[in-house]
Amino acid sequence: MQNLIQKMPDTAPQDTVAHLAALLPTLRDRGEETERIGRLPATTIADFEDAGVFGSLVPQVNGGSEVSLQTYMDMIVEIGRGDGSAAWTAGILSGAAWMVAMLFPRDVAQEVLAAPHSRVATVLSPRSIEAHEVGGGIWIEHGVWNFNSGAHNAQWNLLGFPLKNHQGLPEILTVLLPIHECKLLNDWDTFGLRGSGSTSVEVEDVFVPRSHLASLSAVMKGDFQSVHLDAVPLYRLPLVPFLATKLLFPSLGMAKAALELALASASRRGIPFTVYAKQDEAAVTHVQMAESSAKIDAAEQILRNSVKALLSHADGSSPMDIPTRTRLMRDAGYVNKLLWESIDALATSSGSAFAKKDNLLGRLWRDAKVASLHGALTPTTNFELAGRVQSHKDPQSWFL
User: Fold this and answer.
1) Is 17 exposed, middle or buried (0-12, 13-18, 19+ CB in 10 A)?
2) Is 203 domain-assigned?
3) pTM summary value
4) Which of 103, 119, 135 is the last residue of a domain?
5) What is the DSSP letter of 46?
C-alpha cells in the first residue's frame, strides 16, 4: 500500500498552490459581484481554468492532472482564504468530476470529462423523487434536489436518490444528466455562500440510460464500474467520508483568512471604554487570538490526518470498515465545530465595524456559518453515528 501511495501522480505544476494564493486579492475584490449574481463570475471561472482547478481530480487517462489529495486540499484552502463561495463551488465542481471518474466506466467518464474544463455539479439526496426502472434505464417522473451548488457553472449534474432494486431492497443510485435537463429553480437566497448558487433543481419526465446510472450502494461495498482505475488509490477513496472531509477545506481557508484579518485590525483599532488605544495591547485579545489559532491549527491537523487515513484505505483490497468511516465522520463534525467557533470568536472580537455589509471579515463569517450547516458536517449527527458504532450498534445510515 505504501508503494501505491508513493506512486500516486501529482502532475499539477509545482506553483499551482502559489498561483491560487496570488489570486487572493482578486477573489476578495470580486466578492461583492459574486454575491450579487449568485454564482462565480466568468472571470473567476477563467482564472480557475487557467490554474487547473476543475481538472485537479480528473484522471490522467481523461486528460486531468490527477493531483495528490494533499495538493488538492492545499488548493481549495488557498481559494477559501480569498472567497468562501469560490472555494465551496470549486470544491463541489472538482469533487463531482472525481465522482464521475470513480463511479462510471472509462467511456462514460471520457464523454463527460474529456472536454476541456468540464464542470459537474452534484447532490446526493433528493427532497422528493418519483422514479422507476424501465427497459434500458431509469425514468424520472419528477424529482427535486435542494442545494445544487455550482449548478449555474456546470455542464453536467450528478443526482442521487434511493430506489428499491429488483429484490425490493433500498439502493442509493446516482444519475448523470446534462445540466440542460435540470430546471434551476433559482431559490438560493441566503445571507452566506450566496456566490455558490446552491439552487434547487427539478427534473421532470427524463429517461436516464443505464450507461449513465451508477450505484452508490455498490461503490460503498467496493464494487466499482471504473475497473480501469483499480490501481489508482485516488479513485478508491471511501466515498462519503471523503466528501465530508473535502467539504471542510473551504472553511479551513476562511478560518485562516479570518485570523489574518483579525490580527491586522487589532493593531489599528482601540477598545472603546478602556485604556487600550490598540486592541492588540490587551491581554484579552492575546487570549482570543491564541485560542482561535489553536482551534484552527487543531482542525487542520485533524483534516490532514483524515486525508492520510483515507489514502491508507484506498488500495482497493477491501472497503474501509464502518468504525473507521464513522470516526472520519466524527472528525469532520468536530473540525466543523472548531472552525466555526474560531471564526465566530474572531468576528465577535472585531468590534462594531464587523456589522458593515462590505466588511470582509463579516463576509467570511456569513459564508462560514452557512458552510457549517451542511448536513454531512452536523456535529451532533456525526457524533451520534460514531457513538452508536462505538457502542456496538448499527449506525442507521444508508450512506455508510
Assistant:
1) buried
2) yes
3) 0.94
4) 119
5) H
